[in-house]
Every structure is written in structure tokens, then in C-alpha cells.
Design goal:
Helix content is about 30%, strand content about 25%. It has helices at about 35-45, 65-80, 110-115, 130-140, 155-165, 200-215, 230-250, 310-320, 335-350; strands spanning about 5, 45-55, 85-90, 125, 140-145, 170-175, 180-185, 195, 215-225, 260, 260-265, 265, 270-275, 275-285, 290-295, 300, 305, 325-330. It is elongated, with a radius of gyration of 26 Å. One of its GO terms (cellular component) is cytoplasm. This is Histidine biosynthesis bifunctional protein HisB.
Length: about 375
């Protein structure tokens, strides 16, 4: 199936002048970054459809010959760069006409709704105005409002190409209860320094290990009832993080699914930290299960109770749909706890890595 990118013209492909009419060659200027972005999207399988309102085109106030010269030059330049349009849809009505073919109306695009070869889940609309966003909503596709001085917007063409061509796996989860208020953001396809604040310094450091060694962008903020104890904060952070990872993975196509390496000690990712040794084997099977082999002598490491270490991973497994076997041995409890978080993070890095589009399951679903 083919995704379609519907694209506005003025203010989106080319800059829009103060009088809102590109009716002379000297007014023709391309929006920054549009050509490389469209080439990336073309290579990702997108076809392009231009949808533009041209108020009164063909009337005395906007003669067609003044429009066609700059428009044809724009099309020739894009063609010379390997960018072609499946169709160019132009509405020439005035706003007062309330024509169904004028954006945000979808009258000009109705025939696409009958085309079963279109991948509507990946299709999108790029424009510079709210009317373009409304057009997208009326078609049931994702809107991208380009950032401009006139109308605001939050996207540039490079960001749009990243969002659509690379399909970054992101999720934002808010978990609010009487005990905790948590917000988690993850981007499994972007490496960034983790930003974590839970009110528990050592626990923050452990969560940072998951983002850092897991190879993905992680932001987590929690306000919890620490005046009672640490349990709710640590448990709920695990539940929220697991939910975010599960949502970001989506249909799980292309992922490694399993996180382990074949070692002499068995099928596990093994990580040393001084005298401590931890191993983890995990599977994003959709079936939560947790096995822990280890123990701690100290009641706490920093401000984190050691009894909550296995509880954290059990809670993470519940909402992530994760099967995890975790083992740790050593003498220093600080080293052992940190080794647990690091080794799980390294196994996660392997399991979430995307290497294609196949679903790693004979069942057809994960």
C-alpha cells in the first residue's frame, strides 16, 4: 500500500508573499529544507498530492496567466530534483463561497477515499494554516503545521521527514493517582542524555542507566508520596515506563524482540561491575513474566530500598509485556543493584533495535 502526503503550496512548498499571491517570477522562493525532505519521503515510498486554495484564480483580480508562469517554474524545478506530484488539486473559489472543494473541505480529494491502495495510516497533510490541519482531520490523517511567522506552527521540513520517513517510535505517558503523578517520554530511535527526577537520587541514577545504556531518549518526572515511603514512587515509575515502551514499540515489526547474547554461562547478556556479575535475558513476547535470582545484604542503597529492586523489574514487565530473567551475584550491593539496571538496559538495547519490517513471531502477533 502507498502512503500519500497531501501538501499545501503557498507557505509550505514556496514562501507566501505579503499580498498572498505568487503572481510574478521574482516572488518565487522555496521554503527552506523542502527539497531534501521531499526526496527522503519519496525514497520512503510516499507519493505527493498538492492541495491549494487560490482565491479567485482566473478572475480579473488574479489572472490565470500570472499564476501559471511561477507555478510551472516551481513544478519544473521540483521535477529536475526528482520530485513529482501524483496530482495537483486547485480550488479557485473565494472564502465567502463556502465551496466544499475549498480547504478545509475535502471535495477535491474525495476520489482518494475510494482508492484501496492507499496506506491511510501513514498518510499525512503538510500545511501552514489551521485550515490545512482541519483538512487533514476531515480526511482522517495526521496533520503537520509548518512553522511560519504568519501562522505559527511547530514543524520544519526536516522534522516532518524524520517523523514520516523514519517513523520514530515515541510515546508519552501520564500516570496520575492519589499516590504519584508521573510523566514519561520515550523515543526509541533517538539517543539523548536521560532526564529523570523522582525525588530519590539513587533511583534517578538507576533510571538514567536504562536510558543511557538502553540507547534511547528517556525523560521521566515523578512527584510521589515520599513522606510515606518509596514504594509507590518506584513501583509506579516502573509501570509508567513499561507502558511507554510498549506503546512506543507499536506493532513491534522489525524489532530484535530478544535481548541476550550467547555466553559460556548460557543465553544471557552478562555484564560485570567490579566484583559483581549480572545477566539478563528478555523477550518482548507480550506475556509478562519475571524471574529473579539474587539477593542483597543491605536494606538500602542510597535512598532506594533493595527489596524494591526486583519489584521494579516485575512491575516493568507487567506493563511492557516483557519476559525477563535476571540474575546477579557479588559482594557489594551498590555494584549489584547498578549492574542489574545496566544489564537490563543493554538487553533492551538489543531487543528494541529495528532491523527491518518483519514481525518476529510465527503467530502473526506480539
Amino acid at each position: 500500500m502507498t502512503p500519500i502526503l497531501f501538501i499545501d503550496r503557498d507557505g509550505t512548498l514556496i514562501e507566501e508573499p505579503a499580498d498572498f499571491q505568487v503572481d510574478a517570477f521574482e516572488k518565487l522562493r522555496f521554503v527552506r529544507g523542502v527539497v531534501p525532505a521531499l526526496l527522503r519521503l519519496r525514497d520512503a515510498g510516499y507519493q505527493f498530492v498538492m492541495v491549494t486554495n487560490q482565491d479567485g484564480l482566473g478572475t480579473a483580480s488574479y489572472p490565470r496567466e500570472q499564476f501559471e508562469g511561477p507555478h510551472n517554474l516551481m513544478m519544473q524545478v521540483l521535477e529536475s530534483q526528482g520530485i513529482s506530484f501524483r496530482e495537483v488539486l486547485i480550488d479557485t473559489s473565494f472564502p465567502a463561497d463556502n465551496a466544499p472543494t475549498r480547504k478545509p473541505g475535502i471535495g477535491l480529494a474525495l476520489h482518494y477515499l475510494r482508492d484501496r491502495s492507499i496506506d491511510w495510516a501513514r498518510s499525512a497533510m503538510v500545511g501552514d494554516r489551521e485550515t490545512d490541519n482541519a483538512f487533514a482531520r476531515n480526511l482522517g490523517i495526521r496533520p503537520f503545521q509548518l512553522r511560519t511567522e504568519q501562522f505559527g506552527g511547530e514543524w520544519d521540513w526536516a522534522g516532518i521527514a524524520h517523523a514520516l520517513a523514519e517513523q520514530p517510535r515515541t510515546a508519552a505517558v501520564a500516570r496520575n493517582t492519589r499516590e504519584t503523578r508521573i510523566h514519561v517520554d520515550v523515543d526509541l530511535d533517538r539517543v539523548a542524555e536521560p532526564l529523570v527526577h523522582t525525588g530519590l537520587g539513587f533511583f534517578d541514577h538507576m533510571l538514567e542507566q536504562i536510558g543511557k545504556h538502553g540507547g534511547f531518549a528517556l525523560q521521566l518526572r515523578c512527584e510521589g508520596d515520599l513522606q510515606i515511603d518509596e514504594h509507590h514512587t518506584i513501583e509506579d515509575c516502573a509501570l509508567a515506563l513499561g507502558q511507554a515502551m510498549r506503546e512506543a514499540l507499536g506493532n513491534k515489526r522489525g524489532i530484535g524482540r530478544y535481548g541476550f547474547e550467547a555466553e559460556p554461562v548460557g543465553a544471557a547478556f552478562t555484564l560485570p561491575m567490579d566484583e559483581a556479575l549480572a545477566s539478563a535475558a528478555l523477550d518482548f513476547s507480550g506475556r509478562p513474566y519475571f524471574v529473579f535470582d539474587g539477593g542483597f545484604k543491605r536494606e538500602r542503597v542510597g535512598d532506594m530500598p533493595t527489596e524494591l529492586v526486583p519489584h521494579f523489574f516485575r512491575s516493568l514487565c507487567e506493563t511492557a509485556g516483557l519476559n525477563l530473567n535476571l540474575r546477579v551475584a557479588g559482594d557489594n550491593d551498590h555494584h549489584k543493584v547498578e549492574a542489574c539496571f545496566k544489564v537490563v538496559a543493554r538487553a533492551l538495547r538489543q531487543a528494541i533495535r529495528r532491523e527491518g519490517n518483519e514481525l518476529p513471531s510465527t503467530k502473526g502477533a506480539l
